[in-house]
Amino acid sequence: MKPIAAPARARSDAPMTEPSPPSSPPSPPSPPAPADPLSPYQQALRERFPSVEAITQAAQARRERRRRARAGTAACAALLAAALWVADPAYRTDHVTAAAGQPATQVLADGSEIELDRGSRVDVAWHLRSRRLTLAAGEALFRVAHGPRAFTVQAGDTRVRDIGTVFDVRRHDGSTRVVVLEGAVEVSAGGDTRRVGANQRVDVPDGGAPSAASRVDAERITAWRRGKLSFDGLTLAEAVREMQPFTARRIVIDDSRAAALRLSAEFDRDQADAMLPLLPGILPVTLRTAADGSAHLALRAGQGGN
Known about the structure:
Elements: H1 42-48, H2 52-87, E1 90-97, E2 104-107, E3 113-116, E4 121-127, E5 130-143, E6 150-155, E7 158-162, E8 166-172, E9 175-182, E10 184-189, E11 192-197, E12 200-205, E13 214-215, H3 218-221, E14 228-235, H4 236-243, E15 251-253, H5 256-259, E16 262-268, H6 272-275, H7 279-282, E17 285-289, E18 295-299
Parallel strand pairs: 5-6, 15-18
Antiparallel strand pairs: 1-4, 2-3, 3-5, 4-5, 5-8, 6-7, 7-10, 8-9, 9-12, 10-11, 12-13, 14-16, 17-18
């Protein structure tokens, strides 16, 4: 007998899969997050405590405001400085005087020197860009120290501007006399200006313009610095005006011909009374004393004017 074959199993090409594990039960739902207790106050907190960006912007704004403020302050300071420079205000005033008995010398803070005749007074005003002096009375010689600030002397209506020099200014009988020893000055009065050089002189009547500059011996004219009165061809009328402040007697010239005579002499200022009796020996004049004690000069009879 033939053996009986076992029936063949059907072959499948499908892959074999492992059985899925049993699924885990679903997780219970998460409990809801607790509510933020600050939520109701968030807007107020933002306003009170700004964000980093807001803080940065505020700082930048502050820096810009400070920059503008500094720029404005600097501009105002510059304008103020310019206004002060133009206005040239005085920041100090000094008074320099000489007693009635003797001359005096004063050195100013800038090194300039003033020699004052007896009984003279000079007011010194220090300005930002100028030195302004006023000869209130008498006579003074100015030796100017060079500097960036202008140096001027006011005497009555007359203004003298220094151009690097030594000069003398005198106020007497309603007029101003300017004599230059070294350098030059500009003398302004009555709407006119004259340049005056070394060994030159100008005279300015109050309310008038400067005279033409004339040649003089400046050292003789400033002999007051040596305690002298020095005349070099002065008319008798001019010499008497120079002598009068140094004598208690009133000196009168009785006629114009005598007044025009020329006098050259030098003597101590304190000896003016002693000088009067000597005049008839120097000039063709007579001298008489009136009842009031005044001295009268007249041309000697038979003499003509020189």
